Amino acid sequence: MPILETDETIRSLLRTTCTIAVVGLSDHPYRDSYHIAEYLLDQGYRIFPVNPNIASVFGQPSFPTLADIKEPIDIVNVFRRPEHLPGIVEEAIRTGARAVWMQLGTGNIAAAERASAAGLETVVERCILVEHRRLIQ
Q1: Burial of 112 by CB count in 10 Å (0-12 exposed, 13-18 middle, 19+ buried)?
Q2: In a domain, 102, yes or no
Q3: Considering only CA atoms, which of 72, 74, 80 is closest in space to residue 25?
Q4: Is 2 part of a structural domain of the chain?
């Protein structure tokens, strides 16, 4: 799978997604991850918080790792620093996720290329909230 860069490919991914694992989701309302995950919930997506440092957010339990989620994941949406992406991508591959979305400021080209080579749809350095508002609403 190539790295998704066109409006058509990103629109298709967003329209066919049901579940989103949000890696690095904070339980602090002032954080971007919180605001964006809340928006995604409001849009009807099912969110799986992934953060070993919190018990829950939005009334949902937080998972320590992607591997702890026992349901299919469409998108792994990442809010971690770029140096963490290689490990997150490997875990996304092992868990059978369909796509990896690297939020603004989290991009790691080597990890993106690895995800793409493994067959995951990959979005780099884009905000999922901005793209959803622009392409879906």
Answers
A1: buried
A2: yes
A3: 80
A4: no
Domain membership of residue 73 (yes or no) is yes
CATH number at residue 93: 3.40.50.720
Domain count, the chain: 1
Q: How far apart are CA 39 and CA 101, in angstroms?
A: 16
Report the chain's terminal Cα–Cα distance, integer Å: 26
* Residue 1 domain flag: no
User: From first to last of its 137 residues, what are the pLDDT tens digits of the chain?
Assistant: 568 789 999 999 999 999 999 999 999 999 999 999 999 999 999 999 999 999 999 999 999 999 999 999 999 999 999 999 999 999 999 999 999 999 999 989 999 999 999 999 999 999 999 999 999 97
Residue 129 CB contacts under 8 Å (≥ 6 apart), including other chains: 35, 36, 39, 40
pTM for this predicted structure = 0.96
